[in-house]
Amino acid sequence: MPPSASKLRRPWQEIAKEAQDYRDATIASLNPPVPRVPSDLPKAVTSLPESLLDSDDIRITILPPEDLLNALAAGHLSAAEVTSAFLRRAAVAQGLVNCVTELLPSLALERARELDNYFQRHKKPIGPLHGLPISVKEHIGIKGLRCTTGYVSHWDNIAKEDAHIIQVLAGAGAIFHCRSTVPQTMMHLETDSNLYGVTVNPYNSNVTSGGSSGGEGALVALRGSCLGIGSDVGGSIRNPAANCGIYGFKPTAFRIPTDGWGYMMAGADTVESVLGPLSTSLSGLGIFMKVVIDSQPWLTEPALFPMPWRDVKVGEEETGKKLKIGVIWHDKVVRPHPPITRALKETFVKLQEAGIEVVDFPPYLHDEAWAIISSLYYPDGGEADAEMIDSSGEPWQPLSEWIIKKNACVKKLSVGELAYWLEEREAYRKEYALHWNKLGVDAVLCPVGPGVAPKHNTAKYWNYTSQWNLLDYPGVAFPVTKVDKSIDEMPANLVKGLSGSDEDNKKLWDPEEFDGLPVSLQLVGRRFDDEKVLAILEYIKRKIDLPFR
Length: 549
Known about the structure:
The chain has 549 residues and is of the alpha/beta class. Helices cover 41% and strands 13% of the residues. It is globular, with a radius of gyration of 22 Å. Residues 81-534 form the Amidase domain. InterPro entries: Amidase_CS, Amidase_dom, AS_sf.
C-alpha cells in the first residue's frame, strides 16, 4: 500500500466500533424498547427469550413458518404484529449470542403495513410468503445496505440493488427483518470477525454456532427468525444448522439464484457456492425451495437450470418400492465423536424397524476429495483475501490463517495446474457416481461433522460437508438427539487413530463441556435430487419420530 494511502486509512477498531454502534442503534430504535438482556449470562441461553419477552411475542415466534403462513393467509395474524414480534425476538437473540449485524425495523414494518393494507382490500395474501419475516446472511445484497462479507475493508461497500434471491422472496410476500453475522473470509466453520466479534452457540457460549452462516444458525435456534437465507461452499449452511439443532439445506448448484451477493470467489466455478435455507422446521426448507423455484428465476438469470420444483413420492406406501438408505459411519480419515456414532446407530436401528432397507455405504476416497476441493478453493493462492484483510490493518482470525496460510493445498495455480485440478474434480465426480450406482441407494445418511459444536477456533475438519460440495450433491442437516455424557463415552479399544486428523479430533472430545448440545445428522442425495432428499427426510422423520425424545 502506498504511504499516502496508509496515512489516510482509518484504524480498523474505529470502523468496528462504527459497525457495532450502528447495529445497536437499529435495536434501540424499536418501540416499545426491547427488554434489557442480563449482563451476567449463563452458558446456555435457549430458554431466556421466553423469560424476557411478553406472551404475544412468544406466542407468535414459537410457531414454525408453515403455521405462521397459514395464520397470515387466514387473517388470524397481521404482517405487522408478526414482524414486530420477530424484530423484538431477534434483538433479544443479539443480546444473548451476538448474531445480528443490523435490524431492519423501518424497512420491515413499512412492508408489513403494505401487505396488511393489501390483505384488507383484497381479502387474500399477496403471495405464498405473505407477511413472513425472513432473516438474511449479511453478504446477500439488499439495496442501500452495507455488504462487508466479513472484511473491515468492505465496510463502505453498499449494495446497488437487491440480490436476485431477495427480489424473488419479496415478490412472494416475504419481509426482511434482520441481517446476520458472518466470519472474516466467509471460510470458517465458526462465525467471528473483527467487525462484530464472535457469535456463540445458544446451547453453550464456550462452543461455536458454526459457520459461515453461524449468525443465521444461532438466530434461528433462538427463534429470532423461523426462516433464514444462508450460503454453503464447504458446509456453511449444514454446519451451523447442526451445531444449533435446527434444519439446514444445501441445494444443488444453479437451482437457487446467485446474482447480487458478495463473495470473494463470485464468478468462479471451481467450487460452486450456493444459497439455501435454514429453518426451525423441515417444512420451512421445502417452502423456501418451492417458492423460489416456482418463480422461474432462470428467466432472468440464465446461469440457472430451468428445472421446476417436482412433487416427489417416496416410501413403499406411495411407490410400492422400499426406500434404501446407505450409511457412512466414518470417512476412513476421522471417526466421529461418540454422540454422532450413537445417533447413527439409533437411526439405523429405527429405520430397519420401520421397514426401510439400510445398508453400509463405504466412503470412496474421501481423503482425495479434500485434496481436490481445498486446491480449488483459492486458485489465486489466497491473494485477494489477504489483500482484503491486510488493506485495513485488521488482524487475521485464527481460522482465516488456518484455511489460507496453513493449508498446504492453497497455492497460486497456473492455467495448467488449474486445468489439472478441474480434471481431477470431474474424474472424481464420475467415479463417485459409479460407486453410488453399485450400491443403488436412494440417499446417504452420514455425519455433518466429526463431532457436535466444537470449542471456538477448533473447527478444522470440513470433509463431512465439503465432500458433497465437491460432488455438488444436495444435503440436509437435521436434529436427532442431544449429547448425554453418561452414555457418550469414547471407546477404550480405539488405540490407533485412522490418521493424524483423527488423533487431533479425538483430543477435542469433552463430554463435560458438550453435555446437552444438539446432535445432528445429514441426509445426502445425488445431483438434482433436491426434492427427493427433502421428501425422504420428511418420510423418515414421520416414520421414526425425529428428533428422538
